[in-house]
Amino acid sequence: MNYRLEHVAIECKDLEASADFYQRLFGGTPTEVRTGSAGYPFCFIKINGAAPIQLMESEEPKGVHHYGFVTDDIEQAVKDFRARGAKILRENHDAKGQLTTVFLQDPNGLQVEIRTPR
Is residue 3 part of a domain? Predict the structure, then answer.
């Protein structure tokens, strides 16, 4: 049996602000906002063919600790994030001083990891 990540669901305080964050910083494409059977509005954000992120608006967000993306050019990614106003929490470097990972904060206070491929 094979498994692959299908989506990551994130409870967020403001669906519109969260969707905008993923559009501006990652070029994501949101689906239409719908209301689920549990009564909350939600949408999916598709980013470059990867497993989508489901954003679910909630009065009491629980979120997730972090989720990660990989990129082929971490240096350029960090430049782009800074230019787009991202809140960078920390950067990790390897023993040679090369940047390997950056953590951003999304509008809900969640951490987003972007790293070079392992």
Answer: no
